[in-house]
Amino acid sequence: MNQQAVTLNERILVSTLRGTEPEPATPRDTGAPAGAVAAVTGAAGGIGAAIAARLTADGYAVALLDISDAVHLTRDDIGAPLSARLDVTDREDVQHVLAEVIKATGRLDVLVNCAGTAHRSSFADTSAQEFLRDINTNLLGTFLTCQAAVFPHMRAAGRGRLINIASVSGKTGGIGSVHADGSGGRSGAGYASAKAGVINLTRWIAREVGHLGITSNAVAPGPIATAMTDGHHYDTANIPIGRLGTPEEVADAVSWLAGRGAGYVNGIVLDVDGGLTRA
Ligand SMILES: NC(=O)c1ccc[n+]([C@@H]2O[C@H](COP(=O)([O-])OP(=O)(O)OC[C@H]3O[C@@H](n4cnc5c(N)ncnc54)[C@H](O)[C@@H]3O)[C@@H](O)[C@H]2O)c1
Fold this sequence. Notes:
single chain, alpha/beta, Rossmann fold, nine-stranded mixed β-sheet
């Protein structure tokens, strides 16, 4: 793709996509439609960046979205055409940025919700503010971005894939880890509740949008080696595969859900946890 990064406005960087011919079939032949566009939130983070890189390799023009300005550097590293600063908890911001992405590209085929925060404070010490922060970034943010992607764009297009990154914490009531300083680090009540909410929200949306040609699925990673887990020790003896997962392994699952092979898959939670919750 012949691209030149340009500034559309102060909020969003886009590339000029030269030429009118759609992209040829992707090297991996995942079923990405020619010229397809994907948006990934939390794309400056470990898992989000890996997902953005994988979808780029799959042939999507990817818009990397994150509350951190580092997202623009990640875009350059990956060689993706778009990036924008976005706060997923702000409904106006979400609607504006997704509309800008769609205006710049003419379409939105895949939305991946990967933005998240995680607190690890104890039951006794968790403040209302801490609890609500994780509810807002993980759960409200997922709702707002899915809503803005479907209405009006995906509904009008008659197609779309919504892929939400949940967590095993949303299925098990949180998983334990020990921080290097010896303190306990089980994922907190707000985080575990938010991720449980993401799982059921994903199913709820699946029932709403399936007849519109849109699917809604979740991926539930176990502990993955990123900044979120850095400095925390996990008991890998409890994980049948015996190690933490990698961001690329989560990205593989997202790639499959976005691709042709998952056309009739709707409302599932795909565990990428080395067997932690299944075996
Ligand atoms: N790392 C793990 O072990 C693990 C396990 C299960 C699920 N997850 C989930 O995977 C996702 C990515 O996690 P990660 O490990 O890459 O973490 P990370 O901290 O590296 O990335 C999270 C990203 O979300 C962004 N973000 C936070 N608040 C935001 C907001 N309001 N608006 C937009 N962006 C915001 C951050 O800037 C960051 O770039 C999260 O949803 C996380 O809960 C991670």
